Amino acid sequence: MNNCQKSKKLKTRFSLNKLNKVLALQFFQIFRFGILLLISIIFTKTNLSLGQIGVYETFLLIAGSVSFFWIGAMQQTLLATYAENKTFGKTTEKSPVLFNISILFTALSVLSAVFVFLLQPVISGMFSIHGEQIPYMKILFLYIIFSGPVNLVEYVYLLLDKPLKIIYFGVLTFTLQLFCVTIPIILGFDLGYGLYGLVFVNILRFIWLGFIIFKYSKIQLSVKFIHEFLILSAPLVTSFLLSGSAQYIDGFIISYKFDEATLAIFRYGAREVPVYVLLINAFGNAMTPAFAIKDNLKQSLAELKKGTENLMNWMFPTAFILIISSKYLFPLVFNKNFIESAFVFNIYLLILITRFIFSRIILIGFKNTKPILYSSLVEIIINITLSFALINFWGIYGVAFATFVSYVIEKIILIRILNKKYNIPLGQYVNVKKLYLFSAILLICWIIGWYI
Question: Mean pLDDT, to the nearest integer, of 118-139?
Fold first, then answer.
């Protein structure tokens, strides 16, 4: 076999390997979403009251609200720093990186749990909980501590190039979660027993994390690396916090101008298609480590472009159908009072146009996270300003449209930074012609759905 054939074989093997990791992470995200949705559906079929189901949702919401921003940001920072960093250099066998990150995640999870415990009266007020104590606080305390670090497991397997382990971990632990959370409720026990089941599964996941850390990482605490990691992740943490707060700001603006019924109509429509978001985010996260290796930049950009095109080929056509049929689907799924929610949903569907532009993950791979923070600040300022301006002319639709415009401007800023600073034009990582064509058709479908 000549050198040219060997090179082609290695490239093919690398591409298939990358594809496997992408698909594995996408499967993991979809399977997790499906299990969580199934648990919610099963709860509605049991003897749990609507109030108890609300307590369960609030339990998860509180846990998520104090950790989503730093978990998401630090997961992406890990993907960018694992292959190479200033403290340890290039990754060797059993790098200390994973051990230090697991310690950091555990420490932040403990701090988050303590934060919730100490601020119970404030949090109870924010989430409209009667009284100053959060229901099942002891269980929530344990859940926050153990559920934070276990978010590392699938990404550790991703970095270690073990896609099948991602699938095994997801299927085994989330299937177990389904049974441990729902069976006590089905048997007629109190909601607390289901929550104890949730904590039990997360303790098992935590033990699983401990095994893989001890197996694949060197046990060497490095304050220098943790400091380096925190400096790099800080802009991303702030960016995630700003982006995550946008939906709450929109809700506050509408609450200020309208009544609770109007807010409900807005919130039922103000959401993207979960499957789209999960698959796109999983793809982006799986691709991030490739951009931490500058030698493979050209190949990584080509893979990103191809993978993005594959997603566009089926997501856009399904979005065309949804955007035209939503005003018929919403009254069927909910009731006729929510037909206005369909028009809000259609505006949020336009955000799909921006989701295929992965400028952010390229910058994270390059370990240049400050532009992401600046663009997020611009995004939130435009969102708020434009929402207040458009709400007077277009009501709740104006707030939704302001969100779409702010997303577009944030992407334009990052596109310009990549082009100007790194000489990477949009066409190198996105099929621009196909994106423009699909975007134009989606806008036409939106007009049809709005006026006809």
Answer: 79
Residue 195's pLDDT is what? 96
Question: If DSSP states are collapsed to H, E and C, what string results for the chain?
Answer: CCHHHHHHHHHHHHHHHHHHHHHHHHHHHHHHHHHHHHHHHHHHCCCCCHHHHHHHHHHHHHHHHCCHHHHHHHHHHHHHHCCEECCCEECCCCCCHHHHHHHHHHHHHHHHHHHHHHCHHHHHHHCCCCCCCCCCHHHHHHHHHHHCHHHHHHHHHHHCCCHHHHHHHHHHHHHHHHHHHHHHHHCCCCHHHHHHHHHHHHHHHHHHHHHHHHHHCCCCCCHHHHHHHHHHHHHHHHHHHHHHHHHHHHHHHHHHHCCHHHHHHHHHHCCCCHHHHHHHHHHHHHHHHHHHCHHHHHHHHHHHHHHHHHHHHHHHHHHHHHHHHHHHHHHHHCCHHHHHHHHHHHHHHCCHHHHCCCHHHHHHHCCCCHHHHHHHHHHHHHHHHHHHHHHHHHCHHHHHHHHHHHHHHHHHHHHHHHHHHHCCCHHHCCCHHHHHHHHHHHHHHHHHHHHC
pLDDT of 373-426, one tens digit each? 999 999 999 999 999 999 988 999 999 999 999 999 999 999 999 999 999 999
Which residues, in sequence order, are bridge partners of residue 89?
85
Predicted TM-score of the model (pTM):
0.86
Owner of token pair 């990477």: 424
Q: How far apart are CA 298 and CA 349, in angstroms?
A: 31
With a CB cutoff of 8 Å and minimum separation 6, the contacts of 286 are 18, 21, 22, 25, 26, 158
Spatial CB neighbours of 342, under 8 Å, sequence gap ≥ 6: 269, 326, 327, 329, 330
Say what percent of the chain tops pLDDT 70. 94
Burial 207-222 (b: 16+ CB within 10 A, else e): eebeebbeebbbeeeb
Condensed to tens digits (0 to 9), the pLDDT of residues 182-199 reads 999 999 999 999 999 999
Tens of pLDDT, residue by residue over 279-309, are 999 999 999 998 988 788 999 999 999 999 9
From the list 115, 431, 106, the residue with the least C-alpha distance to 301 is: 431
* Annotated domain spans of the chain: 15-221, 238-452
CA R_g for the chain: 23
| Residue 297, token pair as written in the block | 């930049």
Out of 104-118, 286-300, 355-369, which region has the weakest mean confidence (pLDDT)? 286-300
Q: How far apart are CA 304 and CA 286, in angstroms?
A: 10
- What is the C-alpha separation between 373 and 370, in angstroms, rounded? 5
